[in-house]
């Protein structure tokens, strides 16, 4: 994933946004109809958003690669898209896209069944892998149909991603944490950011609850504490983008993105549930939730917006999708920490209403823009991120219609493998959190993997980090 200020595609995003803005207001039909009092209306609106989302997907075309989105989208966003389509099935019980999702999710698992695909070496970071792992975790929790028995299973895939990332925990700089990038030759390897560590925290909390293995919870606690100690999260629970290892993480980039708040909120809510209502985790959940209010406008009230880039019109392709993740994780958190529902649902309802109105662009008059605060005046943008955002916030209004996500004790059917992936596995008795074990795994594992990739990937030279 490439984020501001490290983006390598801002010019392309600007050009496409500028071109599309010329078409703003030239819609042919009305925006999507949405009645929040009618579950069928919500499902119908979500169905329209999902259909329009998949008009951007080419992985099911003859000769294309399943699980990939075309340019300008990076590989991680396909994983995010499949996670949202798994949510779509959970909320609506509409199974028409399930085969497509399963095909894409399984095609991209890589040789070790851990979403480390060799053809993504030039761009894959810990956050990218994390989004695929969280999608697999959602499939296990929401009882998305299990893959054939001869294929990798959802829970095992999530565990494999977690194991890989646990082995990369880096104590050499900043007293811990995951780096943004996995490979030393990629730009951003010297950066530790909130989203990479947030994905790891989120996945650890959810694996702890699903499996009952406290090892995952200990890692989640460790990651949350590190994020706080290194000041990527401040005393008021605002999450900042990241900092550089070369300066021992002293140069905090204080940009705030919606998805950082969302990924930590869901993880904290799951930890609250896992710890049977721990006052500490309750305080953390409420702290994060209160800090999240920065992403909801006062005019119009309670409508979500990307505060860092929407007002100055600087959002890039990645940024267009971030609200989708806050939307889905805000509402998912309710199932684990029900006390947040009175705060969350007014935000969700106002944002969904506004997002449906913003789905008024494109040649069909129902493509969704990003700026929900503009209501039915289409902002002139369209794409995967905008569709995911609208889909996520609209279907979130069905949260009271669905069951609590399952665990292996409450009806979960997905098969796990605690030793999955290339990270050495998670112990069932010893959390393996000692600095010696972690340092050896992260340094040796990263070194060996980097050497193998450098040998095997043709043209692996200086231009790969440009």
UniProtKB/TrEMBL annotation:
Residues 1-31 form the signal peptide. Pfam families: Glyco_hydro_76 (PF03663). It catalyses: Random hydrolysis of (1->6)-alpha-D-mannosidic linkages in unbranched (1->6)-mannans. Gene3D superfamilies: 1.50.10.20. Belongs to the glycosyl hydrolase 76 family. SUPFAM superfamilies: Six-hairpin glycosidases. It is found in: Endomembrane system. It comes from the Eukaryota. InterPro entries: 6-hairpin_glycosidase_sf, Glyco_hydro_76, Mannan-1_6-alpha_mannosidase. GO terms for molecular function: mannan endo-1,6-alpha-mannosidase activity. The keyword Cell cycle does not apply. This is Mannan endo-1,6-alpha-mannosidase. The lineage of its organism: Eukaryota, Fungi, Dikarya, Ascomycota, Pezizomycotina. It comes from Letharia lupina.
